[in-house]
């Protein structure tokens, strides 16, 4: 599952746009808290941005990298980056960070998980989730950004052996990882000030998104990872990556609450009965792979859950749901509105 969870790819609206969509801060007229209308307005704005599948770079001129820099790599090495003129991110979420920092014109290739529009015309250097060292080296990158899930390891060794600096990052699996990874990417590319500016923007957006959670609403949400054509039917638990999003949206991760301590567990009638989700969260392609909601409720046990009985299913595009990049605040906006809908 690590390959399928490798952060399929992610950016955000500016705080001004998001707060503007909130109707002046999102409080009900009596000051009792965010109104349903404000949450819906935020979700509508976020949905439009996600549908465009584009990034929102930092305002102002693109930063100029100050190099060389030596940074810690998550594979235990210290890596010196002397040139950021030809950047190759091997992770979709990392690619979104690079583009949002304002360095997109320096990116020379993409991983299969970089699905946002700005990366669409770049040459792809992965087949499935495996990196082709030959494809990478043919693009003459000056620095490669990978994560600990990137493989095969032999390919990374071949890239290093050719003299290309490879900075390895920890995967992002929870909300707090977004700013940590942004900081590390910005430092590796010699633009730490831009990294801090992006983190301030995202922290503001996340705070505004979470402020719209209605008081007293704590639905149970199960994340299902389905690939019908491959007969993959899994329910998320602790560490799935979706659990942190669900909690940030003011809900309870049903798998974790049911005692599923592994990131993913095969779906069984018993597991679904224990989880009893009020809402099911999925990736869009996963829902399509089982024939939409009509096909989903035919999976044994689904129709007997409150979510199945009420057909409460929330689907988010594969490339952004677990991307844990600058578009994550938009995902929270959408989840807050749709998970708590009555």
Automatic annotation (TrEMBL):
Residues 1-23 form the signal peptide. Residues 86-342 form the Fe/B12 periplasmic-binding domain. Residues 24-43 are annotated as: Disordered. It comes from the Bacteria. Keywords: Signal. Gene3D superfamilies: Nitrogenase molybdenum iron protein domain. Residues 29-43 have a biased composition (Low complexity). Pfam families: Peripla_BP_2 (PF01497). InterPro entries: ABC_Transporter_SBP, ABC_transptr_periplasmic_BD. Belongs to the bacterial solute-binding protein 8 family. This is ABC transporter substrate-binding protein. The lineage of its organism: Bacteria, Bacillati, Actinomycetota, Actinomycetes, Kitasatosporales.
């Amino acid at each position: 599952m690590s390959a399928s969870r490798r952060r399929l790819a992610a950016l955000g609206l500016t705080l001004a746009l998001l707060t503007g969509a909130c109707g002046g801060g999102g409080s009900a007229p009596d000051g009792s808290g965010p109104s349903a209308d404000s949450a819906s307005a935020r979700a509508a704005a976020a949905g439009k941005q996600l549908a465009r599948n584009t990034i929102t770079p930092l305002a102002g001129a693109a930063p100029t990298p100050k190099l060389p820099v030596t940074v810690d790599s998550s594979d235990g090495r210290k890596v010196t980056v002397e040139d950021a003129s030809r950047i190759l991110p091997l992770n979709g979420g990392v690619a979104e960070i690079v583009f949002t920092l304002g360095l997109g014109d320096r990116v020379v290739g993409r991983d299969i998980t970089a699905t946002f529009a700005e990366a669409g015309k770049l040459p792809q250097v992965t087949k499935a989730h495996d990196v082709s060292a030959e494809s990478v080296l043919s693009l003459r990158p000056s620095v490669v950004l990978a994560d600990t899930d990137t493989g095969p390891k032999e390919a990374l060794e071949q890239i290093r052996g050719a003299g290309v600096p490879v900075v390895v990052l920890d995967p992002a699996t929870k909300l707090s990882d977004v700013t940590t990874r942004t900081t590390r990417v910005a430092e590796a590319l010699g633009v730490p000030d831009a990294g801090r500016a992006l983190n301030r923007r995202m922290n503001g957006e996340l705070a505004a998104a979470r402020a719209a959670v209605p008081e007293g609403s704590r639905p149970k949400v199960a994340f299902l990872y389905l690939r019908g054509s491959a007969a993959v039917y899994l329910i998320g638990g602790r560490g799935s990556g979706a659990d942190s999003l669900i909690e940030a949206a003011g809900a309870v991760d049903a798998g974790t609450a049911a005692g599923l301590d592994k990131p993913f567990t095969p779906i069984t009638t018993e597991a679904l009965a224990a989880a009893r989700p009020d809402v099911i969260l999925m990736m869009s392609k996963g829902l399509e792979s089982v024939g939409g909601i009509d096909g989903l409720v035919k999976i044994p046990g689904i129709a007997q859950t409150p979510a199945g009985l009420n057909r409460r299913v929330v689907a988010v595009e594969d490339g952004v749901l677990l991307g844990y990049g600058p578009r994550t605040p938009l995902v929270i906006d959408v989840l807050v509105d749709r998970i708590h809908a009555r």
